[in-house]
Amino acid sequence: MMNMALSIESKLKIKELELSALFETIEAINTNASESDLYRIFKFTVASNPLVGKFALFVSDDEGRWKQMVSHQIVVGDKEWYFPLELTNIDTVGSFHYEKDPRFTSLDLLIPIKHKDVPLAYVVLERLDNNEEDKKLSVAFIEALANIIIVAVENKRFARKEARQREYKRQLEIAGNVQALLFPKSLPNEEDLFVEASYFPHHSIGGDYYDFIPIDEDRLLFCIADVSGKGLPAAILMSNFQGGVRTLVKKESNLKDMVKELNRLIMENAQGENFITAFLMIYHRSSHKITYVNAGHNPPILFMDGKPSHLLTGTTILGTFKELPLLEVGELQGVKEFFLFCYTDGITETANDQDEEFGDKRLLEFLQENWQLDQKALHRKLMKQLDAFKEHQEYVDDITLLSSRVLNRSVDDV
């Protein structure tokens, strides 16, 4: 360290440098200079100060860590350098000593950069002068310059965050419009066919989908699905799935080929980033036959003669494997009357204060007691029971219920 105070001439040169740096910083901020430009100004300004040797500037990143953004005469290495958390309890300018990281060896002064008592950055440096008057002047300027630059950087971050939020809101609005088109506009409430659906999105945009499609006078398609992910990408993928279902069901008489084609469609559109669980069932009214494929979805519960059974036959989730493994079509004959209950995992995975899930067993017990209820009443009663079960916990996923009741008044009986 130098033991002599700086000459008046040297002090004037430093002041000129500092004044010039302030003007350059303000101009850079006014012209919306990049963060890297602002850090460059800080680095060259502090490096030009004869009272300062090595130094580094650490700024909080989006993950709450203090990442090195500027360094001078310090070999940082290939890995990113982060400010030690144990030093963040130092909230005033002062000397420090840190031996756990050799990059801090010669650094002896820590300057917290705060805005309204909230730390935004940390400057650590090596002092080359032990004259108290000179040290105070240098530290005060470095602290002021860093504060101006870091506040400007934070403003840029805030602006980016606001822009992202605006974009996300715009995407949600688009996704909402897309999703509104997915669901059928009306469901049958007829003498021999009753279909009821309830949809409770966890967010403003959910990832669930249900459908009912009269293919022709004889065949009825029931479908429920759940896409991984949320927001616009999930909504678009689900709209592609719905479009695929509605197009293919008019062309494909074979449910196995239809599911294969839906898997190919999802693979092309999702590129492996999302997948869909789905259940598709066709009821043949004249022959009283049910065919279905369960593609990794929560197994719907089918009541025939008051006895429940789970519809498990099918394959794995759609959009993950190019060739669906062990794809089978389930088939039931002689089904003149039935009650079908389909749902998404938001029901069974709802947890209570003891972290206990509602689960498949409770759902089955509820349906065994209530399956003969009017379907609107059944849906309301189930949601009321689920509300009571979860106690103080929040719902963590979308919930979709699709129930169908077919009575023995099919076309060949008229």
UniProtKB/TrEMBL annotation:
Domain PPM-type phosphatase, residue spans: 190-406
Keywords: Hydrolase
Signal peptide start and end residues: none
Name of the protein in its database record: PPM-type phosphatase domain-containing protein
InterPro entries: Bact_Sigma-Reg, PPM-type-like_dom_sf, PPM-type_phosphatase-like_dom
